[in-house]
Design a protein that fits this description.
Low-confidence stretches: 243-256
Structural class: alpha/beta
Largest sheet: 7 strands, mixed
Strand content: 15-25%
Strand order of the largest sheet: 3-4-2-1-5-6-7
Mean pLDDT: 92
Radius of gyration: 32 Å
Length: 696
């Protein structure tokens, strides 16, 4: 990977000597910016561009270059790749478009390129990309003119889009966030975001990673890399809504669309998600400061109105505006004399005009043990206070470094002043109390997620009766059907879960002398009925076996008269569970991220309220607890309105066992447990129904 960023020699294939074209721009950029490696061009005519020799063929080059950049029509790429391979060039960047990014593109070109790369052991980026940039050595592969000198920084970028990547390369330095390395991966036929994220995580010169992605081919691999990163990874992930997604066959699918899985993987691995370029810049700025290690905030403001707005903003992000201790109040009273300002949090500094007092008050606030971070509203007139404000920001920077806590600065002045500070002063700023509070929330969220990730604990290991699962799978596979209800419950038992006692019967006569206590529940077993309640296939509250027998006859009669011709594969008779609250536990195999597990409020309203949380499986006990505590319905588990708390530990075990089952037995494509009836603390759960889907 190093050679893509530190090539000692570079050849650009597709350079015009006589006119400006994209290949020529790449040559010009590297010469003007001072790339010191050997630079060559290949074109239809020999000649010279900015002192760089242009050859007609790779065979004419005086050496084997470290990297070849191809920017010629797509149909010429396979032949050029073959020439590179024959010459011994094993690092290639294909910037040409015309492959699968067009809906009617020639997909065979991609196959040919991949096959050639395999034959010659070539690693390549693209196609349809703008390659790499190393600001440290002034090496640039993009084909757009890049003007101006930009300081070298420690933020490295990965972009799936060349256009968005180009925006990043300009927007970040314009906000005093300077770059170390850049790569646009394009169509990702060979190297992708996983390869470059892994490289940046190892790179000693990269402190923060920023990415724009539209999709994952290797989501689980990305998750595994991100979960081990000690560096912040900020991802703007687009392409979020699948308007043409397949119709869900289970609750798990309906409640875990691809973007939900991406969100869960980010949460679990500590990745910061940015909604747009503005939020990405906001996150990159706050990552330059020490982390927000809690949610206790002090608000200092040169405007009373902005202090009120700040209080609202802090409440929005669940920050605690802590009361200032008496000692703090006494110390700041000794610094100035006024009867107007109330000595409280938020602290209105509107009557103070001495910048040295601002710094003294800020230091008194930041060193309080009760304070995790500070939001400072700096409202001023640029014509009078511009120089002082910059000196003040220098002082803020020193205090932040001294006390290792963040101060989120909202600069409220005229536009030209704000832009100038954002671009030219090293201390990160925001332009409103809300954005300053949001930045602190990004920092606090990141710290909390990192803590959970790094303290997740070990994975529980359970005994799994795989033979029993395969016994259920074989008749389903041979008949191309899903497991029946009794078979699905048997799969649960194979995973070590206790299901509600019940028996499968084929007719009324089979009910005689079954050892069941009323009240009873009767359920239709049918390979044609995925949702039994929708076809009238459930009867509850039956007070005897005789009543259950009558219910079977009535259900048969009703189904016989129905327009829907459903097979009757039997009936399940169970003891009816009394009390408890219905929850849902499900899991499925995601195409890109592998096994995932879901928990949420269950019953018939599951897809209406959509109260659920999601994780990549397998999960630890700590992660399962965290899933449950994310639910809007968690207060019910805690014992809302004077009711007994529910058995959270028992629900955690169900989640962990199902996640273990899905990880250990990938032949199961989906599983639904609904409802999982959660009882009061110490009384466990009742699993009364399940659906299982085996993969093809």
């Amino acid at each position: 990977m190093d050679r893509f960023f530190y090539p000692k020699s570079l050849v650009i294939i597709g350079v015009s000597v006589s006119k400006i074209n994209l290949g020529k721009i790449i040559v010009i950029n590297n010469k003007k910016r001072g790339y010191s490696g050997n630079l060559y061009g290949i074109g239809s005519q020999e000649g010279d561009v900015e002192g760089v020799r242009i050859y007609k063929s790779l065979k004419d080059l005086p050496e084997v270059p470290d990297v070849a950049v191809i920017i010629t029509p797509a149909e010429t790429v396979p032949g050029l790749m073959r020439e590179c391979g024959e010459m011994g060039i094993d690092r290639v960047v294909i910037e040409s478009g015309g492959f699968s990014e067009f809906s009617h593109g020639d997909y065979s070109l991609e196959t040919e390129v991949v096959d050639i790369a395999k034959k010659y052991g070539i690693k390549f980026i693209g196609p349809n990309c703008i390659g790499t940039v190393n600001f440290e050595i002034n090496m640039m592969m993009p084909f757009a003119f890049f003007e101006g000198d930009v300081p070298v920084g420690s933020v490295s970028v990965i972009s799936q889009s060349g256009g968005i990547g180009n925006t990043y390369m300009h927007a970040l330095p314009e906000n005093h966030i300077f770059l170390q390395k850049f790569v646009a991966v394009g169509n990702k036929l060979n190297l992708d975001e996983v390869d470059f994220t892994e490289y940046y995580v190892r790179d000693p010169k990269t402190d923060c990673i920023v990415e724009y992605l539209e999709g994952f081919n290797r989501g689980r691999a990305f998750f595994d890399v991100a979960r081990t990163s000690d560096k912040p990874i900020i991802v703007q992930k687009s392409n979020r809504f699948e308007t043409t997604a397949r119709i869900a066959q289970s609750h798990t699918t309906a409640l875990s669309a691809s973007d939900d899985v991406v969100e869960a993987s980010f949460y679990q691995s500590g990745v910061i998600r940015a909604e747009d370029e503005e939020e990405m810049i906001m996150a990159a700025k706050i990552m330059q400061l020490p982390p927000m290690r809690g949610r206790r905030v002090a608000v200092l403001s040169r405007s009373g109105g902005h202090a009120v707005i700040s209080a609202d903003s802090c409440a929005k992000y669940n920050f605690e505006i802590i009361p200032f201790p008496d000692g703090f109040i006494d110390r700041i009273r000794s610094m100035y004399h006024t009867r107007v300002i109330a000595h409280q949090n938020p602290l209105d500094l509107g009557e103070i005009f001495d910048y040295t007092i601002f710094i003294r008050i800020l230091e008194e606030a930041i060193k309080l043990e009760e304070v995790d971070g500070i939001l400072f509203n700096h409202l001023y007139q640029a014509g009078y206070e511009s120089a002082m404000s910059r000196t003040f920001l220098d002082g803020v920077k020193e205090l932040v470094e001294k006390y290792n806590k963040p101060v989120s600065m909202a600069i409220i002045s005229n536009v030209e002043e704000i832009v100038d500070i954002a671009k030219n002063h090293p201390y990160p700023i925001y332009n409103s109390p809300l954005s300053a509070a949001k930045a602190l929330n990004i920092s606090a969220d990141y710290y909390e997620r990192r803590q959970k990730r790094d303290q997740r604990g070990g994975l529980p290991v359970y005994e799994l009766d795989k033979e029993s699962v395969r016994t259920m799978q074989e008749p389903c596979s041979s008949a191309s059907r899903i497991p029946l209800t009794d078979e699905a419950l048997a799969v649960c038992r194979a995973a070590g879960l206790k299901t509600v006692p019940g028996y499968k019967v084929m007719a009324e006569s089979d009910l005689d002398e079954l050892p069941l206590k009323a009240p009873l529940v009767l359920k239709l077993i049918s390979k044609d009925a995925s949702h039994k309640t929708d076809v009238g296939g459930v009867r509850i509250g039956l007070q005897s076996l005789a009543e259950a027998s009558l219910a079977i006859r009535k259900m048969k009669d009703s189904l016989g008269r129905s327009d829907k011709k459903l097979s009757i594969d039997g009936f399940l008779i169970q003891e009816m569970v009394q009390g408890g609250v219905e929850f849902f536990v499900g899991a499925r195999q995601d195409e890109h991220f592998g096994p995932i597990v879901t928990v949420g409020l269950g019953g018939v309203f599951i897809e209406i309220f959509k109260d659920r949380s999601l994780r990549l499986a397998p999960v630890t006990v700590a992660e399962a607890h965290d899933m449950i505590r994310q639910l809007h319905s968690y207060p019910i588990i805690q014992g809302a309105r004077g009711k007994e708390p529910l058995d959270e530990t028992a629900l955690v075990e169900v989640i962990c066992r199902i996640s273990f089952l899905m990880s250990a037995f990938p032949e199961i494509s989906e599983i639904d447990l609904n409802p999982v009836i959660l009882h009061s603390q110490g009384r466990g759960v009742s699993i009364v129904d399940a659906r299982v889907f085996f993969g093809k």
